[in-house]
Amino acid sequence: MDTLDVKGLSCPIPVIRTKKMLDKGCQELQVTGTGNVARENVSKFASSQGFIVKLVNDSPDEWNIIISK
Q1: SS in 3 state form for the chain?
Q2: What is the pLDDT of residues 6-43, one digit of tens each?
Q3: Are residues 54 and 46 in contact, defined by beta-carbon separation less than 8 angstroms?
Q4: C-alpha distance across the termini of the chain, in Å
Q5: CATH topology (fold) of 2-68
Q6: Do residues 14 and 38 make contact, with C-beta atoms less than 8 angstroms apart?
Q7: CA 46/CA 49 separation, integer angstroms
Q8: pLDDT tier for residue 60 given thresholds of 50, 70 and 90
Q9: Is the CB of residue 59 less than 8 Å from the CB of residue 34?
Q10: Is 26 a catalytic residue?
């Protein structure tokens, strides 16, 4: 599983970096970030591209999403 750290970044940067990883052919990606807007946007983007999105951690300081085919 590949990992991507987008903590502290504002949209659209988390979505752009997620897209780059998925475009490289990544089959499973764990994205770690901060902020509700970034979490929602990354999740919506991945879902719209046909990926399965699983939120594995959603604490006030940080979230983790696993994106897979």
Answers
A1: CEEEECCCCCCCHHHHHHHHHHHCCCCEEEEEECCHHHHHHHHHHHHHCCCEEEEEEECCCCEEEEEEC
A2: 999 999 999 999 999 999 999 999 999 999 999 999 99
A3: no
A4: 12
A5: Translation Initiation Factor IF3 (3.30.110)
A6: yes
A7: 5
A8: confident
A9: no
A10: no
- Residue written as token pair 């594995």: 56
Given the residues 9, 11, 26, 53, select the one marked as catalytic.
11
pLDDT tens string 38-54: 999 999 999 999 999 99
16: CB partners within 8 A, 6+ apart: none
The pair of structure tokens assigned to 66 is 């696993």
Tokens of 3: 């990992």
Domain boundaries, the chain: 2-68
Instruction: Decide: residue 31, CB within 10 A, 0-12 exposed, 13-18 middle, 19+ buried.
Output: buried
